[in-house]
């Protein structure tokens, strides 16, 4: 008996010698088909899975745009937790420091003093990040940035605000002025923001609220079908600026049909391509998060920094509160005037010296507009020369925000086209 | 039928002993048509294969090197922080390094994070690549096949012994790290990545879960190595190919331009074991990892089966 043959199979069955080769060939083919089939099934499962996830828009009763906006405004979700996928694509090759995202950076780099919380949040301005959020009432919030083998957490529990970076084992502690700013209008958000301000700035709800605040004559709003987000039925709301010079193509917000909570926020540039900002819940739970979620004690041996300059910060935040680029303009910031209005607004200010640094910081003050100002030496590399009735200057552009810096030190920043900037500079 | 054509060398005699050890109850001589193998003897095949792996000097040296890594890391950290300094200037080095001085348990996580990218899978690649090709190279494979165990079962036994090695290698690193950490650093309540503090007992449980996740992360390369091992009759070639595939996958995993294929590379989700240390545990990546490893095990395991049950074994 041939020891070279497999034991199972035709051992002992006494096939005629001529048939053996053919039978073995066939058997071989059948066996090799198994791994191929396994791989094929896996590929098909992945394909079908993503097709199912994207298709099958839910059937929901019709709703008008006004009703939907009212629903969002009325929505009073106090408790929720979930994961958010947050992607930004500003169209910059790579992000040097000094560039940050709307609210995340607003109180942030401008102050320069502390390294940790704001600098960390600025990282959100590029690439894709996973955030985990948990909210229980107005004074218990948590936001974590999930990193590779590390995590950055911002925890607000009452008037205590902790930031913990597990990667470097450092803690940043501050106290939230509870009450202050918590009730006055826009400050309400900011007050919630105030301390944990950065906390929810990146969540779809906050982004959506800011966009909806800006809804007015200059904006067209429409309900654009339905979608499934994080396994929940949602309406799609499309907000489009009417102004021709705006670089914002459309803002799409998916609103949870039951609770009115925005679940997904997408901001697309007029130039098309991938969304500039895309924040969406991948998992959401409207139950009460466990109380321990908001507990924090600095671990042994961690470096703890106390936040001393609290008042200053709070004020700074209040000023720098502008929402989406140019929406509410950061009009409070000193030395800053806003040309145009709503979507087409352009921030204008003058930088005396140390162009790079200051421009970067100042642009930060203009809120999301700060995205456009690369720090320091990168200025020359990114800019392109322009000249007009204002003289000559450098123009810097991203997919969303453009900035013009004249040789006299005038800076014009806005989510508008380059031509609009040049026209404004006249 | 039992006698080899070439003059019986040392290895072959050893193989005969091994074969007899495996089927000792059959008293050496194996009837050609023996069927109906009792479950007990099935297990004995698995046991003897596992024994074969762990009796090898090579395996013991690999495990010894793995055990030395945490000791090395621990001592280095202790020496560096002996004068009150911080580790690596904060934030550098492998994950969790900054916490090691405060809690020895973190040495377990650091060591696993340090060995998982290369050391652990390399050891697994060596064992998996050697499993069948090594037997073929030393001329002992046919002895194993003469016994009525069947190729499928032999393959399963080889896979099992490799998987046991995955677990053993991980546990060696983890236990060595735990012992070193306990000796050199204080132990106590554990602060998770999310900033939540849990008791030392729960920390230990999480460390065990982390070790389990790491061991499961190695299933993919074990299956891959086994498949490579069925392709060649040279143990060295199989080991080198497996380790080469590992390095290639690790390199491909680095380039953002290749993002489209990266989720399907077996090392892609390896660091997800850290997600066990979040509160609440972040399952997405972990489950992705387990699914991917299961897929590799299914595809390459069945490919190894297809190859091994149909190939001509001449050595």
Explain what this protein looks like in three dimensions.
- The complex is a heterodimer of chains A (about 425) and B (about 325).
- By secondary structure, chain A is an alpha+beta fold.
- Chain A is built from ten helices and 18 strands.
- Chain A has three domains: about 1-55; about 75-220 and about 270-320, Clam (outer membrane lipoprotein receptor (LolB), chain A); about 335-425, no CATH class.
- Chain A has helices at about 15-55, 65-75, 100-105, 115-120, 185-200, 205-215, 310-320, 355-365, 380, 420-425; strands at about 80-90, 125-135, 140-145, 150-155, 160-165, 170-175, 220-230, 230-240, 250-255, 260-270, 275-285, 305, 335-340, 345-350, 385-390, 390-395, 400-405, 410-415.
- In chain A, the strands form two sheets. In chain A, strands 7-8-9-10-11-1-2-3-4-5-6-12 form a twelve-stranded mixed β-sheet, covered by helices on one side. A six-stranded antiparallel β-sheet of chain A has the order 13-14-18-17-16-15, with helices on both faces.
- In chain A, strand 17 and strand 18 (about 410-415) form a beta hairpin.
- The longest helix of chain A has about 40 residues, at about 15-55.
- Chain B has one domain (about 40-310).
- Chain B contains eleven helices and two strands; from the N terminus they run αααααααββαααα.
- At the A-B interface, helix 1 and strand 4 of A face helix 6 and helix 11 of B.
- Chain B: GO terms for molecular function: ABC-type transporter activity.
Features:
heterodimer; A: 426 residues; alpha+beta; outer membrane lipoprotein receptor (LolB), chain A; twelve-stranded mixed beta sheet; 10 helices; disordered N terminus; B: 315 residues; mainly alpha; two-stranded antiparallel ribbon; 11 helices
